Amino acid sequence: MTTVHSAFEQTARAHRARPFLLVLPEKLQLTYGEALDRVAGIAARYRAGGYGPGHRVALKLPNCPDYLLHFLALNSIGASVLPLNPEYRAAELEYVLGHSEASAVITLENLKDPPFRETQVTPASAPCSIPRAPRESRKAACSAISIFSTSENATSTKAACARCGRGKSA
Fold this sequence. Notes:
Elements: H1 4-14, E1 19-23, E2 28-31, H2 32-48, E3 56-60, H3 65-76, E4 80-83, H4 90-100, E5 104-107, H5 108-111, E6 145-148, E7 156-159
Parallel strand pairs: 3-4, 3-5
Antiparallel strand pairs: 1-2, 6-7
């Protein structure tokens, strides 16, 4: 089966030195080879965090290079990507996350301090991260979703599922 990542990887291996991405005004420029290396590094961190096939990871990022690199990395490990509009209002975000069964939410804030740790991350133990991938099957009918932020207040929010009522808004 051809995936987005496999098509990217095939092209990147054939054209490593060619330009892949140019972002202005930041003046970020990546060749296919550099992008492939970054995607592999990001994918390794997701795998180390326990993510893989069957997991859903929400990307709440603006239109930026990190979105594309994380999308490709998640695709390479078989995880599903849930794109989230960073401009969603709280009610919209709660609704989408309450029904998506996302294992994690990636934001600009937690990109700076990667959320993948050796130990289980919980709201009380880590002010900067999202949890490791859950061990239970992702085939449950629904589940509450935790969102962790790297803000100074280190808050967590749980979205309640409208179908079963599990979870509480904080």
